[in-house]
Amino acid sequence: MNIKINEKLKQLRAIKGVTQEALADHLGVTPQAISRWESGSGYPAIDYLPDIADYFEISVDELLGVKTTEREARREDIYMTIEHIEECGYNTSAIDLLREAHEEFPSDQKISLALAKALISTKDEDAPNKTYLHEAEKILRYLIRHTDELDFRFTCTKELAILYKEAWKDEDGYKETLDMLPGIDSCKEIFFTDYFNGATQDQTMMNKCTLSILQKTVNILRDHVAYSLPNTKRSWNDKLSHFDWLIDICEHAEKLIAGDGSVILEANKAILYRYKATYLIAQGKKTDTLTSLERMCDCLEKLCHDSCPDSIPGTPHNPAWYFLPYLDQDRYDPIRDNKRFVKLKEHLAAMAI
What we know:
Blueprint: H1 5-16, H2 20-27, H3 31-39, H4 49-55, H5 60-64, H6 68-88, H7 92-104, H8 109-120, H9 130-146, H10 150-167, H11 171-178, H12 188-195, H13 203-228, H14 236-256, H15 265-282, H16 286-304, H17 319-323, H18 339-351
Helix pairs in contact: 2-3, 7-8, 8-9, 8-10, 9-10, 10-11, 12-13, 13-14, 13-15, 14-15, 15-16, 16-18
C-alpha cells in the first residue's frame, strides 16, 4: 500500500489554514516533526494518527489514502473474527490476531475493546501477564475518555471495573471505577417511566422500559437470595420461597404487559427454576427437582419459539444452548437415569442452536 500521508497533511493544513506550529502544538510534538512528516523523511507514530484525523475531522483511512471499499471489507472480516473469538474463547493466538487488527485500525473502538478484553482474559492464568493487564487498562481508559457513545462507554467502564476487581484485587480502584458510572436515576428507562405521566407516553415504549427495569430488578433480587443470604440447609426452604415469589412477579408482569416482548421474562423464570432445582436436588427432593427443570424447559421453549428470535440479542446461540451444559453437572447424578430427566435433556438438546 502506497501511503502518502505527507501530501495529505500538507493538503489538509492548507484547506484548514493551519500552520505547522499550530498542528504541532495540538499534537504535543515539535514543528520540526511536522516538517519531517510533510517532507516524507519520516512518518508520524501510529499513536498520533487518530488525533491527526480527529483534528482535521476525517477518518484515519482517509488520512492514509486507503480506498474505503477495500478498507471496510477488511474491517468487516475482522469483526467476524472477533465474533468467532468471543464465541470460542480467548488465547494467545487470539491476542496476536487482535493486536495486529488494532495496529491496522488504531482508531476503531470496537477492535480496541476486543483487544482489551482478550488481554484481560489472561487474569485467570496461573501467572497472569501483568504487561497485558496494564496494556488493557491503558486501552480502556483511552476508550472511556474518547468515545461519545454512552452504551459503549458503559461497556468499557464495566471491563475496567472487572480488571480492578478480579485482576488487580484493587478494591479502591474498583469503587472509583464504579463511581464513573451514572446512577439508576440517570438511565433512560427510569426517565421514560417516571419523569412524565405514563399515560402520556408511547405505550409500546413504556412497556419495553418497564420490562427492562423489571428484568434487572428480578436478577438483582435473585442473586441476593442465592449469594447474599445465609446458605445453610436450614435456609434452603426460605430461599426456595423467595425464588417462587420472584417467579410470581414475572408471571404477573407477563399478564399485565401482554405482548410487546413480555415473553422475554421467560428467561428470568428459566433461571429461577434452574436455581430452584439446585436446592431441591441438594435436599434429595428428586420429583420436585424434575418438575422445576421441566418448567425451566417450558420457559426456554417459549423463548426459542419463532415469535421471539432475539431473546438474547448479540449472542450467537439461543437460550437453550446456554442452559444445556448445566444438566451435565454432577449434582444431577441421582436423577440422571430417570426417564423424565432423560426426556427433558433430549428436548433441551433438540431446541439448542
